Amino acid sequence: MSTDGLLKALNDSQRYLDVVHKPHLGKSEAEWLIETTVSNFAKYYNSGFIEYRKSVAEAGDFASVEWTGSGATFRDVQGREFIDCLGGFGIFNLGWSHPKVVGAVQAQLQKSPLPTQELLDPLRGMLAHLLAEITPGDIQYSFFVGSGTEAVEGAMKLAKLYTRKSGFIAAVRGFHGKTTGSLALTGKAVFRRPAMPLHNNIYHVPYGDADAVEQQLKIAREVGNDIAAVVMEPIQGEAGAIVPPDDFWPRLRQLCDEYEVLLIADEVQTGMGRTGKLWGVNHWDVAPDIITSAKALGGGVMPIGAFMATPKIWSVFNSNPFIHTSTTGGNPLACAAAIAAINVTLEEGLSEQAAEKGDYFITKLREIASRHSDIYTDITGKGLLIGQHFVNDDIGYEIASGLFKRGVLISGTLNNSRVIRIEPPLVITREEIDTILNRLEDTIQGLHTSVSAPIVGGGETNIVVA
Questions:
Q1: What is the domain range of residue 430?
Q2: Domain boundary among 325, 347, 369
Q3: How far apart are CA 253 and CA 268, in angstroms?
Q4: Alpha helix (H) ranges present in 167-270?
Q5: Distance separating alpha carbons of residues 249 and 284, to the nearest angstrom
Q6: A single GO BP annotation from the record (predicted)?
Q7: What mean pLDDT comes out for the span 33-39?
Q8: DSSP one-letter string for 185-212
Q9: Sign, Cα dihedral of 52, 150, 139, 232
Q10: In the predicted model, is pLDDT for residue 456 greater than 50?
């Protein structure tokens, strides 16, 4: 680290701050920012993002670098407008820059952005109180962190402390995070294998198969593999908006009671109205012992996660309040955003909006899929957590990139596009949904690429989409 290097950092940081303070950029400034962003990602962050992000690969002369947004639309730094059908994988339930959330954070910023760590910060108590009012069953206490994976880690630790057991049962293709504890629960080899060995005494079963959970609990009891908790997503998100059978969650509750293990609902993605209910488990009137939240909890403005539990389970934290701490988790800015997010979600009836708009969206998508059964295999989901299932990755990627060219941002990368999630802000309008559907039809009609798709009985068949 030379003096020249520090001087360059000083000058670069000032130039970056100048960009932060500018509401708009001129043409040359925007082009400089795009080129700088691509270079910085490639050299200093992760070059793989440049290869796998369609927003870079499919944008034409200049990569699409996000800049600002409102509601369910956003604009890149060059002013190109997109309908957001991705929603940050569940962050933007309230849309981009909801004024009530932004206003709450700005107001708190003028007072105290971070806690003293010694005095009692009021917003943390306020948010915990609100969560006790809106969570299912007897859940009452909360701990706040900065992300979903931290929330899952905390839930695992709490379960182990309370039960004095170490094992967990999770689902194949489930997703709970990528830090080492939550990664042990995640049911995808592509994420797990490179980091092995992980937390031991973890058992995976097919999602939605309550009999498999019961069998695993029986075996664990017989051989002495002490199970602390069963951990499941109410609806699997990463796997493609997979909805379990209606008896699955009620049976999980019954089995956990019978075998004296805890039931953890990972609501990081499904919570805060995404599936048409405030919490995913509300679809089946099930109360878990521990519940996690993140993503939309920050109102699309601040990162915050939480894990919550009943007083009985939380007693192990109350008896030693320093057994689990976080320097910045639950800071006043994040709590202000979450308080506002809860208020907006309830005030604007966003759960109900998600249910109504989701029913419409899914019905229309199934009509499209039935007309194009050569490329679709299924449409799944509840509310505005929807999965489009394609015959292979090639078709999925062509759909995603084609929609992006037509001004619709949707999930889909070069390495995993067979299932593409539709996860727009819950404030998306019916007109915007219809626009997406029209552009989807146009994308399908515009495909002229021959791809190979597996057929029943083995072998391959060439499908030409015209």
A1: 47-97+350-464
A2: 347
A3: 19
A4: 180-185, 189-192, 210-223, 248-259
A5: 7
A6: putrescine catabolic process
A7: 91
A8: H---HHHHGGG-S-SSSEEEE-TT-HHH
A9: positive
A10: no
Q: Write b or e for each residue in 103-127: b if 16 or more Cβ atoms lie within 10 A of its Cβ, otherwise e.
A: ebbeebeeeeeebeeeeebebbeeb
Cβ contacts of residue 148 below 8 Å, gap of 6+? 177, 268, 269, 292, 294, 295, 305
Predicted pLDDT at 47: 85
What letter represents residue 173's amino acid?
Answer: R
Residue at 256 is within a domain: yes
Could you tell me the maximum CA-CA distance found in the chain, to the nearest angstrom? 69
Q: Check whether residue 403 and residue 373 sit in a common domain.
A: yes
For the chain, the C-alpha Rg in angstroms (whole number) is: 23
- Does 464 score more than 50 pLDDT? no
**Alpha carbon of 309 to those of 142, 172, 382: distances in Å?**
7, 25, 25
**Average pLDDT, whole number, for the chain?**
92
Indicate the pTM of the whole model. Answer: 0.92
pLDDT tens digits for range 287-316: 999 999 999 999 999 999 999 999 999 999
Rounded Cα distance, 272 and 94, in Å: 10
257 shares its domain with 195? yes
Burial of 343 (0-12, 13-18, 19+ CB in 10 A): middle
Place 269 in a pLDDT band, splitting at 50, 70 and 90.
Answer: very high
Asked if 158 and 309 touch (Cβ cutoff 8 Å), the reply is yes
Which of 295, 272, 427, 283 lies closest to 348 in space, CA to CA?
427
pLDDT mean over 112-122: 92
